[in-house]
Structure formats: structure tokens, C-alpha cells
Fold this protein.
Amino acid sequence: MHDYARKTLFIGGEWITPAGTDLIEVIDPSTEQVIGTVPGGTEADVDAAVSAARRAFDPLISVAERRQRVAAVIAALEKRLPDIAETITREMGAPVRIAQTVQTQVPLAVARGFADVLDGFDFEEQVGNSLILREPYGVVGAITPWNYPLYQVVAKVVPAIAAGCTVVLKPSNEAPLSVFEFVEALEEAGLPAGVVNLVSGRGALIGERIAAHPEIDFVSFTGSTGVGARVGELAGRSVKKVALELGGKSANVILDDADLATAVKVGVGNAFLNGGQTCMAWTRMLVPQSRYGEALELIEAAVSKYTVGDPLDPATRIGPSASAGQFETVRGFIERAQRDGARLITGGAEPIREVGYYVAPTVFGDVDPDSELGQEEVFGPVLAVIPFTDETDALRIANGTPYGLSGAVWAADTDRAIAFAREVQTGQLDINGGKYNPVAPFGGYKKSGIGRELGRAGFEEYLQTKSLQLPA
Ligand code: NAD
């Protein structure tokens, strides 16, 4: 049974009534109906959560204890995955097939990846006459967005637990209900009181208090670049470590001798995954001028398979935008792209249903790389197709945005694609359809962020380093 009428916060191992009376409504974007509420916490709730996390933090925690905690979390998470998938469908409109796979199985794989990293990790190393110790960083503030609500929380909470840290977690207001269910799983896992604390609430209040809190040692934030900059500013003032996973405008670069049909099919699928609400989506498709007409035909054919509809229908590939605000944002981008002279190939800004925040999958051709659509993250099912003349031009366009999160390169020869990828300023690139790896470091260049998540690199973010110079 789901409890969508949440009235309590999880602090110090107990579900407690918050200090204030604010309640935040959660809306099903396919029906526009309120399906639940979560408390809007106060600064006093953050302070209580930080105190609980501080009390639970033991810098000398054994590795065996951490392994036991991570194993218990994975077992409890696995049991709750079907429930959590249902909730993600309801709170943010993810089609069931996406909710049951990418939204939940990927976080499980990520959590298992951290268990493996922990198993193989050396916490002590001798360098010359020094003994180098890797210690848990301390109390972590984790602030997460709505688009992959479970994944983003798992990518922070599990490495924090593996490292021996304790956590104060603030989920998004659009999709917080799945996070409450994840925290129940943590409770079922028997974590000691205060290891993970949950405070839902308004970003400007709860998020800023976490970022500025003097007793938090490290803030790990995932969200928009604008809010990330604010979090970094507040964390900087209190001299705490910060990791920022921010937006993207990633390029899918299809070189002239690539298998165009495959590159287009995979590229369209990537751009529209989760309704385009994916930070690492390849939202710009860079196509050689010499094959441009052929590419547009293939794109149109591929897009026609992306059925938009009720997220509960197993045939649906694209559900609604996750919120009314996001719906209006996406439609605004489409309208302005048309005004900017981009060629509408398919889709458009018109809502495609009377009820629910549904936008048609939309493709623009002849997009000026320097226009708003060529530069800014839309976070909806909108693909910008940009022709290039040669490799130099493709590289200039690929690197020509403020972002650098993800991307892809396709060429007949994999070595040629790798050589091109070496020059792209981005944190992750798929070469000729190379598949997703849940333990490969993930994070941004430029305005896409600071730091890395996942795998060993993601785990090491939660560790502090100490050097002991030993006597001869
Ligand atoms: P957002 O920045 O609006 O919100 C993210 C979180 O920050 C939410 O919990 C929100 O309540 C909180 N917040 C809001 N204002 C705050 C403030 N002033 N101080 C502290 N916290 C505050 O982002 P969103 O709309 O929820 O998510 C979409 C964005 O997230 C997109 O830009 C997307 O690219 C990005 N994103 C990045 C990654 C990544 O790994 N790089 C992954 C997913 C999403």
C-alpha cells in the first residue's frame, strides 16, 4: 500500500511531525489531479536533521559495518522497487516501461556497483614515508531533482553510506513520494538512527539551509545550473565541499561514414528517453551536410514510433511533461525556436490532449547552433538537428555550448570516433552505440558541473584524505 498523504519527516530514525504546517501538493501530470502531499519542512527541521546526522557520524566506522549497511540497503531497495516504480509513474508521469526499467533497475545496478567498489577499495596506502588514510567525509547534504527521482537519490545516499558518511536528504517537490518510499526501505534495512534523514520542503528554504549549514561538510547537488550556482555560492561561504551535477545540451555527432540508420535510431531514442527529461540526453543531432536529407527522412520515420500517451499504457513511450511548469517551459522553447527560423520537421507547441501536460515529440531541422534551441537545455521531447560541413565544423559546434555533460560519436571506424571524442569537452561519450555503464564516472565539464558520480570516482567524492608521515 502506498502512503501518499505524508505528514512526517524522517529525522534521527523516527518519523516526526515537522516544526511548521506547510504541505506541498504532488500532482499527477497525466490527470492534473493532486495525488498526495509531503511536508514543507522548516529550517528548524533541517537543523534537527543535521544534529541527528552529526550524532550518527562515526569517523572510525569499520569497513565491515559499511559493507553490512550497503548490503542491507540493496536488499531492502530490491524488495520495494515495484512499489517505487508505480509511484514514479504517478508522480512524474514516467511510462510504466520506463518506470520499471531505467527509473528503478538502473538505480539498483548503481547501488550494486558501489557495493563492488567498496569490496575492492584500499582505504590505506603507503607513499614513501607517509601512510595515506581515506576517511569518511562527514555529514553530507544531498539535494535532488525530479526527473529520475530514485536514481539521483541512490547515486548520493549509497556511496555516502559506503564511505561511512551520514546524510540529510532533500528531494524535489515534484516527485518526492518515491523518495519517501526509498527512505522507508532504508528504515527496513535497519540503518542506525540518524544515518539518513529526510527533510522535504521548498528549495529556497530547505535547500539553501542545507547548502549554508555550518555543520554540513559536503553538499552534493543535482539540478539546474542556475540553482547549482546558488548552492555553490552558499557552500563556498561556509567553506564546505560541493559536488554539482547540472544541466546539459549534449551532441550526438554522426560523422560522414557512420551507419546513419543506426546512429539516428539510437540517437532519437536517447533524445526522447523519459520524455527528453534526461540531463544526459543527446538533444543536438549533428549530421554531415552531405547526408542531411537522408538523415531527416530517417529521423522522421524513427520519431513516428514514439507514441505519446497515458503512462499506465504499456505501449506508451512518451508520457506527459512532469509538471505544469515544465510543460509551459517546453512549449515556450518550441514557439521561440519557430520564431528564430528553425525548420519544424514534426511536432509543435500545441498541447496534444485536453487534460495532462502532453507535448508531441518535436524535431527541428536547420537549427542555428548559436540560437536558443542550439544552446539551452529544454528538458522535454525536443530534438535539434544541426548540419555540419566537416569534422572541424562538427567539433566547433559540439563544443560550442556552455555545457559538457554527455554525448555520442559515430563513425565507420571506431578509432576515428574515439579520436574525435578525445577533443569533445564533455564528461561522458558513447562511441558507436557503446552501452550505459553504471560504474563509469559521470559528471560535467564547464557549466554541467563539478565532481563525478558513480563507480570508484563517485565513491571517492565521499572520502577525506589524511597523510601521516611516519618516523624512519
Ligand atoms: P532545480 O535546480 O530546480 O531543483 C533541484 C533541487 O534543488 C530540488 O530539490 C529543488 O527543490 C532544490 N532547490 C530549488 N531552489 C533551491 C535553492 N535556491 N537552493 C537549494 N536548493 C534549491 O532542478 P529540477 O528542475 O528539479 O531538475 C531539472 C534540472 O536538473 C535540469 O537542469 C537537469 O539537467 C538537471 N539534472 C542534472 C543531472 C546530472 O546528473 N547532471 C541529472 C538530472 C537532472
Notes: Residues 277 and 379 are 5 Å apart (CA to CA). The longest strand covers residues 33-39. The radius of gyration is 22 Å.
